[in-house]
Amino acid sequence: MNLLKRLFLLTLAVLFFCKNLSFAQTAVAPDIGDGTEGNPYQIATWQNLYWLSIHSDQWGKHYKQVANIDIGGIGSIGGSGWSPIGNSGVTAFTGVYDGNGKTVYGLTIDRPVTDYVGLFGYLRGVDAVIKNLRVKNASVSGKDDVGVLVGHNLSGTIENCCALGEANGSQSVGGLVGRNEANGKIRCCYASGSVSGVGAYIGGLVGENVHSTIENCYAISGVSGDTYIGGLVGNNYEALVTHCYAYGGVTFSNAYGGYLVGQMYNASIVSSVCRKSEKVPPVGLGAGGLGVTDEEMRLPATYLSLGWDFAGESDNGDEDYWNHDGERSLGCPFLNWEANGKNDDDDAEISGGSSDEFDFSNAGAWVAFVESNSDDVILNILQTDATPNIEGSLPEGISTLSPLYWTGNVVLGEINGKYNIKLDLTGITGIENCGTLHVLKRENNTQPWKDVETDLGATLDRSDCPNSITVEGLTSFSDFVIAGGADNPLPVELSGFSGASTNDGVRLNWKTAAETDNAGFVLYRNDAEIASYQNTDALKGAGTTSGETAYSFVDSDVYLGESYTYKIASVDISGTAYEYETTVSVKITESMESEAETKAYEYALEQNYPNPFNPSTLIRFSLKQAGNTTLRVFDMLGREILSKQFTGKAGWNAYQFNASGLSSGMYYYQISSGSFVETKKMMLLK
């Protein structure tokens, strides 16, 4: 049996056992750190975080997140969204994850028959820690033990963390953590959004707190379920809640619900506060917790009298857990770490009733009700600095989305009147014609975008454009994004551009965070065009994608001792170009020429990048000496797709392979030069 036939049969076997796997992601191991306490792995991209989620053998290591990460639109097995880090008591996350004050955006999980669901599904052990991490714009659905941050915490510690979004499940569902047990510790954390379940033990912060502690935490959430429903904790069983508050709505269909805790059993609530209500007591079954008026919820004196440790006072301790400015957290206290070193303050929460105007200026939005809204409401609006994912097709005439979008949620109450929302356009470049600017809206990040005017019947006030644009006559909150056609390019988001002098010339590398209808790029050297997507495959764009795409180009027409400045322009499918301000300057040094003369090369074939790819990928190989070289590409049946013969240079060579005319699937690429032959496989995913 020949080699290609054996490879084909092996591939069929793998596909049989893994037929539901999606290859939409590329897992990339962190390139800094070794996973020890003194040198933790640095999580810098969504590819690094995805690598962690699928490598359970790495779940006992140390990690530090060094950048904000958007994982919106990233799918997984069976299209069910993010694969939780830790998925059972046996395969739990037992290491340390330091969020470093950074944020994970766009977490989406849809696993309605799966237990232990969250960004981290299962945290276990007295040495297991998650700290200093923010999760925002999240939508998480599972069965039992469901939380936006952690599904199940067994004996671990969670501190200085927050979770903003939606959590839904059956039993033990929380806005931050589903179940906290066996001396699990949750300290200085908060949750905001909506939490729901069809069963018992549903809480705004934690679903079940069993033989564990929750200290200096709060929840501003709408919570609903069947039995034992709490604004902060659903079930507090032989456990302790101290110096916490809940401010939100609680609804339960069967029995036992409380604005603070749904059920108490041999447990304690110390110095904790919630809203006063004639219908819902502070604690549904048991004792403890202080119910106060909305006005008293906003007074620091309420909490100081209970011994809460605030910044600026010395009577209640010097740890300074809490702070208060009358605005943040609906005017209630907030955790002091939120004010210290907060680097992405893009969320806002406002409560009010009919005919109110709400200022979400720190999220770049303003809301005004223009019809009577009979319910008091709590709104939450997040702003995300990234291009959102696209499901299905865009509305007719729309070709580009801005690298900025908003997500609005109703935390408490219902919208039963029309409202207007004004969106700040600051930072969105490429707006050429305000008259043809659009605003799109979608129900959630799994639904297609709709035009607010043509599809939803709203109107746009463009009179303040390009400073802002106002949508008038809406009746629900969800996601919003600015969109444009051919005369509003809203350019491709460039996330990196670098250059270096190499043996072959100047190697330029750049990445895009997302692309919409990107035809390709044009490169300029010293303000003169040197290459274009129209004549160079390496410069052709990825079209429309919400994922990161890497590009590379070598300028060989350079001279020793000279310096060159490079810049890039992107061109969309209509031919509209956008020139980026970022430039790269490179000097061609003599040392590089000397190195080329003396370096001993080896034969080697690298894995193509990116992989999976669509529609092009870079194949790099090294030759020990110059000579006749052949590049071949085969499909899974062993049929030859491509054969290129050329004279390869000694050292590293690169070929940009374009598969725009091929269908999705596994392919093999082979380099042969003299006696050297090597074959690797690659995945085309359209």
From TrEMBL:
Tell me which UniProt keywords the record has, alphabetically: Signal
Identify the stretch annotated as signal peptide in this record.
Answer: 1-24
UniProt domain GLUG: residue ranges:
169-196, 200-219
Q: Which Pfam families match?
A: Glug, Por_Secre_tail
The chain positions of domain Secretion system C-terminal sorting read 609-683
Protein name as annotated = GLUG domain protein
What is the species listed in this Swiss-Prot or TrEMBL entry?
Answer: Chloroherpeton thalassium (strain ATCC 35110 / GB-78)
